[in-house]
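<backbone_tokenisation>
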Amino acid sequence: MARTNYIFTSESVSEGHPDKICDQISDAILDAFLTEEEMARVACETFATTNRVVIGGEVGLADQSKLKLVKSNVEAIVRKCVRDIGYEQKGFHWETLFIDNLLHEQSAHIAQGVDNKGAGDQGIMFGYATDETPELMPAPIQYSHAILRNLAEARHSGALSQLGPDAKSQISVRYKNGKPEWHVNPTGKFVIGGPDGDAGLTGRKIIVDTYGGAAPHGGGAFSGKDPTKVDRSAAYAARYLAKNVVAANLAKRCTIQLSYAIGVAKPLSIYCDTHGTGQMPDEIIEKAVSQAMDLTPVGIIDHLKLRRPVYARTAAYGHFGRTATDDGGFSWEKTDLVDTLKSSV
């Protein structure tokens, strides 16, 4: 039986955290490639330290002239991203930092699986949803994100101009009765923030990006990867399915796991767990979600319209629990499968 009386903690980090700077740069570069060519292949990694940003990874466009053009714009993309976040420190300034662009073309051995419409790699991906917040997200991570978004808005507007870009929040929620306890930087002074104080790297905040530890994680990061990488697209699909199960009132909590093999299109397995909250056996819901959409990489991309340059906005404050936008951003947060799932079960 699931526990009903416990304390659970999740953390979030701001857009100015060193790792999040790297995620945002990687996704901004991804968006630039997708803007030029919707079939672009991108696996972009970023490293940031004192006054330096290093870009590496694999990219590919069918039009080689466009490939050279986008690669030549990488430095401008990096500087704009760092400027928009708000870094003008002596040790990390958007105008003076050094940028190493080491992007190269995608390996033919990696490309062959995707070229045949299969998965670009093996892996397991999880999606999760719970009815404890309106966004169908776990409360600790959702409120941790909200605190930092509000601080960032106050900083950018000038209402709290004394704030720096780098920040963290952490919330412990008692799932019964009780009162919260607050700590605001109990160690003391924190002025030297960002990559000058601590190095950053793409993909090191995967729990912040997802469910704050309230659900399993397959281990793959999202930022900098085009949607042919199932680390990203299948994780979005799993969240989409889990959210629609909860939105359809088929369960109060739902975890979906998908697994893939490199070069194989269909998922090897589809697993559903409603943690004892389902309105019917999990096997029935599992069958319904497997029939609700095409879960091949191409099917996911088409269903969620993932070939658009909508990824830079995902790189801070969570990939889930956000609002779907008219231009296709956060399409995996829609609940348009509710009627399909209800009729199926």
In short: The first strand starts at residue 7 and ends at 13. The chain has a mean pLDDT of 92. Residues 128 and 344 are 20 Å apart (CA to CA).
